[in-house]
Amino acid sequence: MLSQKAKYALKAMLALANQENGELLQAGDIAEQQNVPRKFLELILLELRKQGLVHSHRGKHGGYTLAKPADTITFGQIVRIMDGPLAPIPCASLTRYRRCVDCADEKACAIRRAMRQVRDSAAEILDGLTLEQARRGAAHAESLTT
Amino acid sequence: MLSQKAKYALKAMLALANQENGELLQAGDIAEQQNVPRKFLELILLELRKQGLVHSHRGKHGGYTLAKPADTITFGQIVRIMDGPLAPIPCASLTRYRRCVDCADEKACAIRRAMRQVRDSAAEILDGLTLEQARRGAAHAESLTT
DNA sequence: TTGTGTCTCTATCGACCCAGTCGATTATGA
DNA sequence: TCATAATCGACTGGGTCGATAGAGACACAA
């Protein structure tokens, strides 16, 4: 399951990606336009800043902006920061592998193999989708989707 | 994330699928051979029975057995029973769709589109994998995987 | 009929995490 | 210097997860 936190993070990042040539956007504005609890969003933005995905400016006319071009930031990065590994089970994770304590023979474990496949396909999708692509996609959405 | 419950359920079902022509297997034996807390496992088996995936027999020489052939039971069915929908987010679920309260335009939502893809690929993998296939796969595993 | 060994079912527990809030602090531009 | 916005830490209420306990129902054997 994707947590609310991750969903809000994606929303916020998309909002920032939609700004014309990197203009600042304030937490309050994002919260309002995206329907996200303001204080909670601040927490999220703080974390995104610590991970180097956004820059912040304080004081009057402060706000947030993407730290990198929108076509270099992927959904996968954001989700991993908020929710941890994509793999449904730690023993199937590449980024944060952890052995199953109750698993006798990992090589032969059918569950692990299946979850590895799930992880791989999720990673392919989410690591292959940038904010920029998502932003453009959204613009075309009305005509494409029935 | 796949819960422990779902993982144990898969283990138990695989253990049952490994029985020669539908012989009974007791909860205690499954618990021991699969390294699963016994009482917790009973709960799981109970739920699997209620959902019609296993049959049970009481009394001396009681136990559990698959309710259907192993090639008609998929990982997807089991995971959904234990953990609910495969989709990372309710608005991307086919089986249990629920609208996002904080989403203005669902059609244009990039997050939903991405999660729908993740769901679809997970469903393709898990609904396409039967206990029988997993069982056979496990047997070949040693030679195939390095 | 009695005993034994299963499954069945409800209740309960502690720990942990998620979502969200509060309030004080610090930095910044006007 | 003052209003405004980000920063940070503490905290909380609720819910879920993993697991356990124990009484009861049932099947079979002796």
UniProtKB/TrEMBL annotation, chains A, B:
This is Rrf2 family transcriptional regulator. GO terms for cellular component: cytosol. It comes from the Bacteria. It comes from Parvibaculum sedimenti. InterPro entries: TR_Rrf2-type_CS (IPR030489), Tscrpt_reg_Rrf2 (IPR000944), WH-like_DNA-bd_sf (IPR036388), WH_DNA-bd_sf (IPR036390). GO terms for molecular function: DNA binding; DNA-binding transcription factor activity. SUPFAM superfamilies: Winged helix' DNA-binding domain (SSF46785). Pfam families: Rrf2 (PF02082). Keywords: DNA-binding.
